[in-house]
Amino acid sequence: MKRHTYAASHVFAALLGLGMLAVYANAQDDQTAPSGLSLEQQRLASRFARLEAVAARLAELAEKSEPERAEQLRRTIKASREKGVAERFNTIVGLLESQRLSAAARDQRELQAELELLLQVLLEDPGDSEREAMKRFLKAQIRELSKLIRQQRSLRNQSQQGLDADRIADKQSELSDQSGEVQEALSEATENAEPNGGQPDSAPPDGDPQQREPQQGQPNSGESQPGESQPGETAETGDAQPPSDPIQRAAQRVAEARRAMQQAEQKLHEAMRRGAEEEQRQAQRELEAARAELERILRQLREEEMERLLAKLAARFREMLAKQRSIYDDTCEVASQVGEAPSRNLLLRSIRLSRRESELVRDAEKALTLLREDGTSIAFPETTEQIAEDMRGVAARLATADVGSITQTVELDIIAALEDMIESLDQARDELAQKQPGGPSGGGASPGEAPLVPKIAELRMIRTLQARVYKRTIDLGDLADKPDIDPADLKGEIDKLAERQERIFEATRDLDTDQNR
């Protein structure tokens, strides 16, 4: 039920948006009879009404299995009715029937904007807010654990130096109380979560977390003395199985750390300094193990987020590539008929191509927004921005019926850039899939902040950007001797390349200095 409801709601969204875009495009074409547009608008109004009814039915079906999705559908329907979308359809029908095309086109533009807002509401992932809340919680607890680890290490060093035992014991008691607050927060998070804690993976990690490399400035966990209890074990419960939920395991580790702290406090008061040091060491190890558990969850949440984003971007760029190839083929066809077909017909066809290219600009801008919101990549957003700029340039040229060599050259560059992006995104997805789930992130990234693509992929994209500037330089140079090329137009394109070269340099510098970290 869950999968079908999710898919159906996205079909609703796609039909809602694509249907409106189709009618909007037809309304701009003055070759279409107003009566035909009115009929098509009426059909779209009927389709919208049916889709709204489908959304309401889907919300009922999803009420128990997917309450968040059901609420999302109801929220979309409510927003539609508040904006009077159905009434706007009927208003446009009346304008078309009275042949008021200019007013109809204006209302359609406004209606299109409202439909796009509805699409954004409908296509939001209901689980995003919960994941973000969990990430914030994990980061906060990791910071608290790191602070406790530093303080525990300091107390152990003071014990080794033979400082005032009673004073150290008092501080140890305070640290135990602070650890209790973290333990309580972790326990509450587990109790408030759904079965398995709603975590990405509730299976115990492969091997003990303490087998990881010690962090800089921390003692190796191998410092424990022979006979010392291992993390998570006590003399009475050494054979007990750890909880399956990772947050529960972290809470248990903190509980064991508190037990060791209390033992250390008692031994310090009894002047048993050697035993106190061993308990302090054990407390530190337990806190490190708890932190490792939370870091593993955070890494896995980030990896799942990366997988979804990479898949979404790859799908968007594939769709853009198919549309751009179609526009290029039609551009070449129009160019081949220059001087043969009536100029007005060629102009109208070129203008329609310009509108299609403008739609691609919006798609590229949406992809760019996704990359900028992620904020961990440098070369990929720059590439997407350059693609969008080239698309704007092509749209402007096509709007003036410029279907010549420069326009076609830029279109081919857009196609090549889209192909490179798709290949790079697919490669990044493959590399992510090959990683051990929840494993350490490369590049020194903090848990939960791993870059969307590895640095080597960024460097490959920088190289591709540079190769593309070089190729267009050669292509423009070859066009310089053609009699139909305007020197001023050619110079404008070369100036754009010079600016692009500067931006590639800046992106390379930012990547070298880890500005995205």
Describe this entry's structure for a reader.
This protein is mainly alpha-helical and 517 residues long. Among the domains are: 1-124; 129-297, no CATH class. The protein contains 14 helices and no strands. The longest helix is centred in the middle third of the chain and has 64 residues, at 273-336. The protein is elongated, with a radius of gyration of 31 Å. Residues 1-9, 14-32, 194-198 and 202-238 have low confidence and may be disordered.
N- and C-termini, Cα separation: 41 Å
Structure class:
mainly alpha
How many helix segments?
14
What is the beta-strand fraction?
Answer: under 5%
Q: Outline the low-pLDDT stretches.
A: 1-9, 14-32, 194-198, 202-238
Top keywords for this entry?
517 residues, mainly alpha, 14 helices, 0% strand, elongated
Short description:
The chain is an all-alpha fold.
Helix and strand layout, with pairings?
Elements: H1 2-27, H2 34-61, H3 67-82, H4 85-97, H5 101-123, H6 127-160, H7 165-192, H8 246-269, H9 273-336, H10 343-374, H11 379-399, H12 405-434, H13 455-479, H14 487-512
